[in-house]
């Protein structure tokens, strides 16, 4: 009995809070559902769950939704001219009844959902302003494209190669396409919300957690989209390297703490160096970005996305051909080859080989350093073929400083 009483108390509180919000939001002269009705709807839901009789539950549900429908009809009959009554209160009442019903078996879910409903109701003015004035039509189109791509296309694609040369995997190809769209759209949103000063840094760091290589491939597009933005674009690249190195340490500690501690000082030195460089670059970026240059942008550039996907696919084909004809003989050679394209994957593989006693600690550390070096070399290569010589020169100098700091730390530890 005490347990059931607790569930009724939770339902009462849920109905009370949502009812108070709806009571305060009623337009003058509109007779909508009030606070007492919300409390009773929540209690009726819990009562139906406690009784647990199908026929009675159906009867109670019909009664509640009939009362909600009657309230709406009554409100619309007495509405003033040009007054939009809406159905938010009626929908909230139905949800409150449902929350009361699930309180018996899932009280935490009911509490969480009630807090979410209450937050949505309280922030209605901000939501209306955002949807009407802030959100652009083409932004909605991009979001819809991502939803269709991630939920309607990618899950249905085969996760294996379909060509005779064992090179093209449809699922991996479209996942790569989705990642590039997310990074480019995230860059657009970051710059629009935070300006170039912080927006580029956020884009670089979050993108680096996914793939720093894609961030470097996207530098040309960033420079084209944001005129005179060499410093912000360079900041994006540096923070992408920072995020990649941080994720590398996380992978190492999750796989083998002993291996991680062995290479910790050189890697953390590179992280600190990149953070210092990124902080200095951010400091010199103007605090206010040009709003016209941001507002005139499209969230994504399909031609640039197709170009990047094609370029990455070509690199993967070259890597597959090299592995096919030369082979992955030698741990150090395999680490170098893997580091050129996927640092995190080769990091995890090296750590697991050490855990399984297939590699000594020294050899595993050397393989990791070679993979990191190869990753930096691939970034330098992309800079020199995709961006201007001046931008590539300054970027290369900063990347070499970060890499050199790690080598110095490693040399001092020997």
Alpha-carbon distance between the termini? 70 Å
Unreliable parts: 289-296
Q: SSE string, helix = H, strand = E?
A: HHHHHHHHHHHHHHHHHH
- Hey, roughly how much beta strand do the residues contain? under 5%
Assign the structural class, choosing from mainly alpha, mainly beta, alpha/beta, alpha+beta, or little secondary structure: mainly alpha
Most strands sheet: none
Number of domains: 2
Average pLDDT number: 80
β-strand number: 0
What is the molecular shape? elongated
Could you give the topology of this structure?
Blueprint: H1 2-25, H2 35-51, H3 54-77, H4 88-102, H5 107-122, H6 124-134, H7 137-153, H8 170-217, H9 219-225, H10 230-255, H11 257-262, H12 264-284, H13 291-295, H14 302-325, H15 331-339, H16 343-355, H17 361-386, H18 389-413
How would you briefly describe this protein structure?
The protein is an all-alpha fold and 414 residues long. It has 18 helices and no strands. The longest helix has 48 residues, at 170-217.
Fold and architecture overview:
The chain has 414 residues and is an all-alpha fold. It folds into 2 domains: 2-131, no CATH class; 135-413, no CATH class. The chain is 81% helix and 0% strand. It contains 18 helices and no strands. It has helices spanning 2-25, 35-51, 54-77, 88-102, 107-122, 124-134, 137-153, 170-217, 219-225, 230-255, 257-262, 264-284, 291-295, 302-325, 331-339, 343-355, 361-386, 389-413. The chain is elongated. The N and C termini lie far apart (70 Å). The model is unreliable at 289-296 (pLDDT under 50).
